[in-house]
Structures are given as C-alpha cells and as structure tokens.
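Title: Comparing notes on inverse folding

I've been comparing how different people in this forum approach sequence design from structure. To keep things fair, I'm posting one structure and asking everyone to reply with a full sequence. Here's the target:
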C-alpha cells in the first residue's frame, strides 16, 4: 500500500524544507500512548517510504519539537510519557548529541513539558 498525498505532505523530505507545526503534531499523535517506536516502524505503520531521507526527516521533526519528542537509539517517544530512568538515559544520550542538536537538549526539560501539558488540558 502506498502513502496518501496527505501523508506525503506531512513528510516533506526536501533538504531545505522547514518542519511545520502540523508535522510535529502528527508525530506526537502517533507516539501518544506508545512505547518507543523506531523510525522504520513509524514509517511502515503509516505506509510511508522507509528511506534514509524519510528517517532523517523524522529526526528533524523530533529535533524541532521543542523537547516534546525524545529520540535516541531506542527510537522515538513522547517526553511526557517517559519514566525517570528513560528520561535519565535519554538526557545522557542527548548530552552527547548536543554539539549537533543543541536546541533538542536545551528544550527537553521535563518540568517545562509538564507545565505545558497542564496548561493545555
């Protein structure tokens, strides 16, 4: 089964394409209530191409999520749904990645996320 035009719009794989709020909301919706999901799983489950370009786009979406989406070698997960141990592991992993993704580390603060969640409920 191939991806619908709407799904492909969500994953704009042009190198210069900015991440849209719609893409962030889409990925957050997919991760809601889920454990860690690998990029391959996310793409396959949504009938999207499992190319390296599409996987890079998922990384870019997570990086632009304002710290709401954690991504590491285990896959992707909403920060709000992480255990303390998972957050500690992800925090250490992100610290090692800080040189290449400084915004992701700076914005992934659980207290900030919890306040945002309370404000939107």
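Reply #1:
Here's my take.
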């Amino acid at each position: 089964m191939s991806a619908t035009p709407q799904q492909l719009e969500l994953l704009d794989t042009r190198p210069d394409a900015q991440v849209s709020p719609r893409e962030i909301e889409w990925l957050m919706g997919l991760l809601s209530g889920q454990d860690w999901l690998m990029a391959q799983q996310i793409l396959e489950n949504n009938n999207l191409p499992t190319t390296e370009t599409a996987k890079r786009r998922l990384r870019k979406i997570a990086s632009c999520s304002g710290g709401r989406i954690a991504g590491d070698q285990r896959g992707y997960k909403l920060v709000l749904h992480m255990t303390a141990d998972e957050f500690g592991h992800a925090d250490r992993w992100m610290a090692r990645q800080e040189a290449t993704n400084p915004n992701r580390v700076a914005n992934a603060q659980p207290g900030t996320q919890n306040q945002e969640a309370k404000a939107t409920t």
